[in-house]
Amino acid sequence: MEAFLHQVLAGLATGGIYASLALALVMIYQATHLVNFAQGEMAMVSTYIAWSLINAGMPYWPAFLLTVGISFVMGVVIERVVIRPVENAPVLGVVTVFIALLVILNSVTGWIYTYTIKSFPSPFPKEMALGRYMSPHELGAIGITLVVLLALYVFFRFTPLGLAMRAAAQNPVSSRLVGIRVGWMLALGWGLAAAVGAVAGMMVAPIVYLDPNMMGGILLYAFAAALVGGIDSPMGAVIGGFTVGVLENVLGAFVIGNELKLSVALVLIIGVLLFKPSGFFGKVHVTRV
Amino acid sequence: MALLEVKGLHAAYGQTRVLHGLDFVLEQGSITALLGANGAGKTTTLRSLCAMVKTQGEVSFDGRRIERMATEDIVRLGVAHVPDGRGTFLNLSTEENLRLGGYVRRDKKTVESDLERMFGYFPRLRERRRQQAGTLSGGEQQMLAVSRALMLAPKLMLLDEPSFGLAPLLVRELFGILRAINQREHVSMLLVEQNAAMALDLADHAYLIETGRVVLQGSSNDLKSNDSVRRSYLGY
Lengths: 289, 236
Known about the structure:
heterodimer; A: about 290 residues; globular; B: about 240 residues; Rossmann fold; four-stranded antiparallel sheet
């Protein structure tokens, strides 16, 4: 029983990371109806930036915040420079651009930092009272994830800018007619997604270690999470993230073994697409004409 | 003084040319109607003014040339558009739709009181305040579109068939509200209407458009008594 509880709690910790990345995917999907395959690699680059800052002697939290800021700018710049020119291109063209971005970010990082696996520090203490069930880093990662999710919820729900971003994502024509600069809202969305991804990267790196391919598996879990929740539902992505995290851990520990863990994500992706393509929280939009 | 002046306006959707050198003037504080049959180019004219279609020609608003400006910048000058098809943000609530209407305004306090004012004009919208706007009836969405445009506190309103989908009683009420806003707040209006009789009652001045050109213009009273307008558009 204790071992089971331990697996569930550890699953919640990684689940929070999947949830963040899934949320980043959903944010971009809502605005563009495309899945950003490079989301994971962008998070990986952010994590390397954090690693460089910390190695240069910066304390963890300032480096954390600075990385989030830099990642935000990186997201905005990528949207403006790389995505904007293919805005009206056919879907396959844009997907190709996403995959190119993935490969480029991966190779350039490998070229700069080498493919040698590095350890990445956790800001949380090594030992603590609850240590029997959960490591301090796992607990801390859950806490950070929840803070990020709450901040995003408040931003989108209660601020005029958040409202404008939602409006621009779902109805660009009407948004222009009320004076919203739709292009900039998309860029801001990319910035936010990159910032959220950066947090996910920094939280997962102490667990999976830092290397240019670290986000490959994570992104698959995040896809599964986003699909389980419904690719157009932010709330669904979050719940999906935690669900996938727990499932993966529990099944991996007790049923299929650690080697087959990743197939949980693939089975989920195929299962959801076959039997419930809108996911469990995908909104059914009611429209009367 | 002219608030809006249009000279030689051409517009096309791809290869299909819709406007062939349209000229008209809208006086400050007036309500001007564009009349014409389906396909005459009325909706396209309104879209051209907001840079929603590719155009050639001159458009001056409030002493400034706007034909090269982006839609959102034209809106920020105080041009509100009640678009064809209502343009509702279907997945947002009624209140969020209204707040978006005032998105570019800096005077947040007046925005709050304007929100209340809209609920005063259209009590149905207050009842539906938290409801997803996509579930509103056609008529309610039309009221929402008009109030969303008013939330901009515009200098000029472009109204594309505001009576569309409204019950006759509501149309009369809506036109009464538009008249009141025009008189009290001096909001100028450019009105496109299928219902020529109602449009001529509301407007001071009207232009008759046929296949992308102005063929007749005059005060509403002149047009009402014009024989061909009477036969073709008023139906008696």
